[in-house]
Amino acid sequence: MSKISFATNIILDIFKKVLIRFKNAKFGLLFFINIFKISDFLSDNRVSIFSKIKSIFSLATAILYIISGIDLIPEIFIGTFGFIDDLFVLVWSLGIVNEEIEKYKKILKDSKDPNVIENVNYNIYD
């Protein structure tokens, strides 16, 4: 019985860490707005290739896990509660993508517009 309790505590601790990560990543309504920036994120040269691969890999992993018949909690034995692990993997994947898009938004905010010339002294004569 103690092994089951120990395993349950480990799983709940992992779930707690993931939820705190999503809270820090502003997982909510803002997340759904960030979804529309994925195409810009993937096509921008200022974003590292590692961030792009990380986002694509997490989405692909989530899709493959949801589609595949291999589950940590099989739906055959538990019924609809078996979709909890699928939902957890999907939320985990979307959370990673959201974090990367937030980093991208910070890059956009910090970058300067190439069409703006700064530190120029000028005078206007009438």
UniProtKB/TrEMBL annotation:
Spell out the subcellular localization from the entry.
Endomembrane system
The name of this protein is DUF1232 domain-containing protein
User: What transmembrane ranges does the database entry give?
Assistant: 53-70
Give the membrane topology, semicolon-separated if more than one. Multi-pass membrane protein
Q: Which UniProt keywords apply?
A: Membrane, Transmembrane, Transmembrane helix
Can you supply one Gene Ontology CC term for this chain's record?
A: endomembrane system
Q: Which residues form the DUF1232 domain?
A: 58-92
Indicate the principal place this protein occupies in or around the cell. membrane
